[in-house]
Amino acid sequence: MATDLGNKDKEKTFLKQWIESLPAAGKESLQALVGLLHQILERKERNKTDIQSLSAMYGPPLLRPSDLDFASSRPKPLKRRIVL
What we know:
The chain is an all-alpha fold. It has 4 helices and no strands.
């Protein structure tokens, strides 16, 4: 169980570094996307869309496993741009 917690901390650190490494426009786009997805989840009862559905719809086009390397302690440069 302690290893899982250690991996979660490593993932959080990695994501924070990755977000900080984005250019300003990328950070703004990511913030807008996260805000939109949050609004969709707030209305999940009405629109019948849960977190799993959103992950399936938006995850693959935005990120590929090769873009994120949680095993290392630092972000890899993105091979694909995040687009809205």
